[in-house]
Design brief:
Helices cover about 15% and strands about 15% of the residues. The strands form two sheets. It has a two-stranded antiparallel sheet with strand order 1-2. Strands 3-4 form a two-stranded antiparallel ribbon. A hairpin with a 2-residue loop joins β1 and β2. It has about 80 residues and is α+β, with helices and mostly antiparallel strands.
C-alpha cells in the first residue's frame, strides 16, 4: 500500500487521518486532504491530541488543589502571613 504525498515548498506532506477531520488547518489538493501546519499528522496524534487541532478543546483540571512549595509556605508562616 502506497501513501500519496504532496510536496509543498520542498516539504513532503502526508494525508490527514480520521482524527483530523473538522480541523481548520486542513486543505484539500487533488482530492487529498493535507495539514497546513504539520507534514505528518499521524505522528502528532500519537501522543493523544494534536496541539495544532482547532476542533479539540483542551481539558482543564478543576480539582482546585494547588501545589504549595513547603519551603515557601514555612517562610510565609514565619513572616506572619
Amino acid at each position: 500500500m502506497s501513501v500519496q504525498t504532496h510536496t509543498v515548498n520542498g516539504v513532503e506532506c502526508f494525508p490527514i487521518i480520521d482524527k483530523c477531520e473538522g480541523c481548520e488547518r486542513t486543505r484539500e489538493h487533488e482530492g487529498i486532504k493535507f495539514c497546513t501546519s504539520y507534514p505528518i499528522p499521524e505522528r502528532k496524534w500519537a501522543q493523544k491530541v494534536c496541539n495544532f487541532a482547532t476542533h479539540v478543546k483542551a481539558e482543564i483540571d478543576k480539582t482546585g488543589k494547588v501545589k504549595v512549595n513547603p519551603l515557601k509556605a514555612s517562610k510565609r508562616a514565619a513572616r506572619g502571613r
